[in-house]
Specification:
homodimer, alpha+beta, 2 domains, 50% helix, globular
Chain lengths: 204, 204
């Protein structure tokens, strides 16, 4: 069986669980601690030199890091990757946007504000306004697109939607007000209404 | 003809020029200023709400942002994307690694140290050690891979190599010492030795 090396509260890891469940792909979970450095040990970095989760372990012992690459690998040949070349490029556009312009602000604000001990936040407190400015800019870019489109690529839910759902649906944890983004809010409901959807907290 | 909306010194834009030249795809260049906000005007953000270059303009007026998505779009069906599913996933792994763990430190250090007026750097000077620590970590991850592989995905130069070449080859501009990474240095020579290679400065 495939094994997902993960932290359960990580949106990047949730993306993989969400896709796997919607596709009916059995996947075992191997958990790592949030603050214990367990993904920076020599044993772990021998598998992924970048020392991060998620990392997918295949049955034959090969390892694949990076949520976007894992989503692509699991979704190839399924309804979650458009068959049209232009739509595939649009899908990747939004997946790179998510990792470069969205996650570093929205996920990072959530991690520090919701999961780090309060006394450690002090050293990062001066960054909170920048996280909020840039995170809101990313939500604004999504809102502009979703005012005239139901999905991010083509006319169906793709792995771009899964990738953007990961941290957008819990952005309030980082101090973002999703009520300011009505088209984003309606899209969140659309994603959550897809067959096989599982909430982030659900384990198996 | 395709039009690349770009800044010539941007490594993200160079990636697209490098691939296009190696594939023999004619592409016109439309330049934007580095410090004049010309990608944040209403006219520009109507085309790319995220206000960034590169952006590819198709003959029919459609627009595609994000260097990784543009590379994919231009390379589909060519030797720059492996036909094997696992190798394609590895390629995307390295492209997401580049945008998340490499570019935000190596490209950003270069931009501030080599292209920003010195008096503006003062406000960012406290970040230089973090850029260098994390950028060197990314170069170390590349070094580990390249000690036992010639290329990042499969046995040929793919768009993962193009993506990583963009800012690695000029990392010295940001204060990185590439002599510390002999396998990376040999790989840089391999990429530069590919047929059709063009240096970053070359215009057409």
């Amino acid at each position: 069986m495939l094994v997902l090396h993960q932290m359960h509260i990580s949106g990047n890891c949730y993306k993989v669980r969400l896709l796997a469940r919607q596709l009916g792909i059995p996947i075992a979970l191997k958990d790592y601690g949030l603050h214990d450095g367990s993904t920076r040990t020599p044993e772990y970095t021998a598998k992924n030199p970048n020392g991060r989760v998620p990392m997918l372990e295949l049955e034959d012992g090969r390892f694949l890091p990076e949520s976007g690459a894992i989503l692509w690998y699991l979704a190839e040949g399924t309804r979650f990757i458009p068959t049209d070349k232009w739509e595939r490029a649009q899908m990747l556009n939004w997946m790179f946007f998510e990792q470069y312009s969205h996650e570093p602000y929205i996920a990072v604000a959530r991690f520090w504000l919701a999961y780090k001990p309060k006394d450690e936040l002090t050293a990062k407190a001066h960054l909170v306004p920048e996280w909020h400015t840039k995170g809101n800019a990313a939500l604004g870019v999504m809102e502009t697109h979703l005012k005239t489109h139901d999905w991010f690529a083509g006319n169906a839910c793709s792995i771009a939607d899964i990738a953007l759902y990961g941290y957008t649906h819990c952005a309030a944890d980082g101090g973002f007000d999703l009520a300011r983004y009505p088209a984003v809010s309606r899209w969140l409901d659309r994603v959550a209404g897809q067959p096989g959807h599982v909430p982030m907290a659900e384990r198996w």
